[in-house]
Amino acid sequence: MDKLQTIRKIVQSAFFIKFVILSVFLSSFFCLCIFGYIEQFILLGSIYFVPVVIVISLLTLIFGRLFCGWMCPLGFIFDLTYKLRVKLSRLKKLPEVPKNIHNKLIYLKYVILILFIILTYYLATYTYCSVCPIGALTNLSGTLLSFIILIGVILLGFIYPMAFCRYLCPIGALLGIFSIKPLFKLKLNNKCVNCKLCERKCPVQINLTKNIDQTECIRCFECVSSCKKDAIDFKPFFKR
Ligand code: SF4
Ligand code: SF4
């Protein structure tokens, strides 16, 4: 594992401990779920979390979906899951969903985002929190259903890397909206020899050599780590 991925693993582990373990023993104060915040705002009018939302939003506007690749506890679990699959099956290339299906499915998470906001408002209850897979790992909102969903999405992530993050996560959808035009972008430079090694390692199936979809990129930098030509930059969009 290179230095960048080692640092990412340390940061992910720290957030996982903060998010899950502290939530189990202490309180929802340690929960960083933006959707949970939205539900609290709709149901209770709470705004105590606004500073956290501002920080995560700014982070996303500047760097893209860094939260997904570095801070989300579910992202951490799915990351381990697909890497276990790669190890066990000795895969040289990550499994891909057929492109025509993938290109449609990435919009499903936006439908889920809107649907849960409407359901929370009209049913006046925590609709997403009660099914959120991470709820199963904490004492915040875990239900039998959230536990079953957690097992289901882990299995899904074993077959298709980060499938939950790509297609189902409403937080990914929300952060995707904030990262339509991030300040820092991933770009290929002129050292690229079009070997496509980066594409084979991208867990969310981004065609780096054609078009880097910044809204789908979870900033895991697996592509950067895999490129042997140092041909992928991460810099402000105005820098050439
Ligand atoms: S791995 Fe590097 S050199 Fe190969 S296609 Fe990707 S960016 Fe280009
Ligand atoms: S493009 Fe690179 S940083 Fe973005 S998700 Fe794919 S591998 Fe990770």
TrEMBL record:
Molecular function via GO: 4 iron, 4 sulfur cluster binding; metal ion binding; oxidoreductase activity
Instruction: Give the transmembrane region(s).
Output: 15-35, 42-61, 105-124, 136-160
User: Pfam families recorded for this chain?
Assistant: Fer4_5 (PF12801)
Keywords (A to Z) from UniProt: 4Fe-4S, Electron transport, Iron, Iron-sulfur, Membrane, Metal-binding, Transmembrane, Transmembrane helix, Transport
Which organism's genome codes for this protein? Methanococcus aeolicus (strain ATCC BAA-1280 / DSM 17508 / OCM 812 / Nankai-3)
User: Domain 4Fe-4S ferredoxin-type spans what residues?
Assistant: 184-206, 208-237
Q: What is this protein called?
A: 4Fe-4S ferredoxin iron-sulfur binding domain protein
Q: Which PROSITE patterns match?
A: 4FE4S_FER_1, 4FE4S_FER_2
A GO cellular component annotation here is: plasma membrane
